[in-house]
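[Backbone geometry]
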Amino acid sequence: MVVCPKCKYTGHLGRSRECIKCGARLEVQLEEKCKDAHEMAISEALTETAEHFASLGQGKLVIDELVAQLGAVQYYDVHEDGDNLHYTLAVCSKDVDDPLSKVGLYEELGIPRDAEEDNPFKTQFEMLSRFNSPGIIKAKQCFSDGELSYMLLERISGRKLSEVRGLNEADVRQIGIQLCQIADSFHRQRLVHNGLEPDSILIDERCRIKVIRFDRVRPARRYDPTVPLEPIDSYSAPEIYTLTEKSVLDRRSDIYAIGAIMYFLLTGQPLPPANEMNDFVYEFYPTAVVSPALERIIMRAISPDPADRYNSVNEVKFALTGLSAPTSVQVGYASDVGKIRDLNEDSVLVLDLRQCFESLGTHIGLYVVSDGMGGEAAGEVASRIAVRAVAEWVTDKLISASLRSTHGSQLAEPTQTGSLMLASDTGVDIKASKLLTDAICYANSEVLDYAQYHPTTRGLGATLTAALLVGNTLTVGHVGDSRCYLLSAGRIQQITEDHSLVERMVRRGELTREEAKIHPNRNIIYRSIGSRREIEVDVLTRSLRRGDYVLLCSDGLTSMLSDEQIELILKRNTDPAQAAKELVVAANAAGGEDNVSVIVVAVD
């Protein structure tokens, strides 16, 4: 038997290291046989209380293992007997104090208060039912039976954030963004979490986090000293140490906690308690090489004065999201006549602009592939006119307009709505999708005008696929059957849709993919540059991550190589110039029946 030195409670469960009634540290660990006996007792209790789960369809729940203990609560991995459905079961003594029932959460959330229930999980259960965030654990049922109280939760997996080492800067940024989303879920309910710290957060192998502890949640209003809020050293903001009955609980205390967690994850060292930081020197380097922009975000988040921090977690999230943009973009391209044709009618354009003002960098990339059509009707002229017209439009409307401005630190940056904000005096907000659509329509009119004034070239035309990359936002516009692929997380995906006769027949179920490859009309397209005055442009947008590859290509590549072959070549060539070269060589080796052109963009 282990007796709690503080409250003298003796009914401890499993491998308890903390008292399940008051949370005090236990000096002696339970022996394994004692652990087995207590877990068996819980299993028997669950058998007797199976009716509590009847509304959820569960039968007898069987304990698999103890996965965590936070304060007075133990968390078990359980499954339904005879099924593979797993859950997490929170267990504590029915006598454990429930601070949440005393701080006005029922009134703040508009929860009808039933008769007082002898269950310390009741308030938390009611609160969690108000949330639908992937970062907040979902509660399914709670009840008390005998001396114990239970809350059935979705299955939680992963390790405590405090136990994780070796995260890189990109991982920590993503964790910071997730923490902001979680905190915002509480703030929108007029609540402050107050308990964000590495021991209360689990992280899985995909770097997704989930908060599992909520006993410190309070309404964002005047502090009630009768329900004290003890600071968490290293993660509680300075103002938590000096709360009085006149204090108002500030949402910006959660911002401090988020900054402190990120500092710990990057350096491996927690901050000292906030009330002992007068002589503390913040140092990332040489322990960690952290980009100056991220360091500034963290330092602002952990400012001792709440007024010096960000005003909201959404401001922090937006600042971190801005840093997620690729810091380096490498481009390779290649174009070849192939083995059968005498003339290369393809045209390729690569335009990269990089600048840095006030320590803020901007990368704007414009990449265009066009496949000319018409043979003697000058298909090579059509493709050349098309790519130049797109470049002229984007340069004039986006790049030149920004360069002419004396305001703003970035030429163009993505906004929260997916638009692009120009660094102009008026801060023009333009849609990247509209910019590309207008550019391609302008290219279409230029090709038609050329044909009108050069009668011998009437009938010329071209396909066109154009990609605009600003930060980590990729916008693609296209007409015809030149394609854009995205290789992300090790898998390739064609993100454009061919405007061809056989593709339409495949979508209708009239042809299989294999039949389409050998169909006699496989080269007929129903939409192209120069075919008519009014033209429809398909536009799509993707957010890129480090490690992604973007491929633009004419059909001279895709008619010779399968998607699987293209994927393998991209994967084995980290240098985009070498990847582009091998793609062209492989297409020629497979027959080279058409001109082949490719642009490969690698995001680092």
Remarks:
- Residues 379-404 form the longest helix (26 residues).
- Residues 91 and 150 are 5 Å apart (CA to CA).
- Confidence is low (pLDDT under 50) at residues 28-39, 47-58.
- The two ends are 57 Å apart (CA to CA).
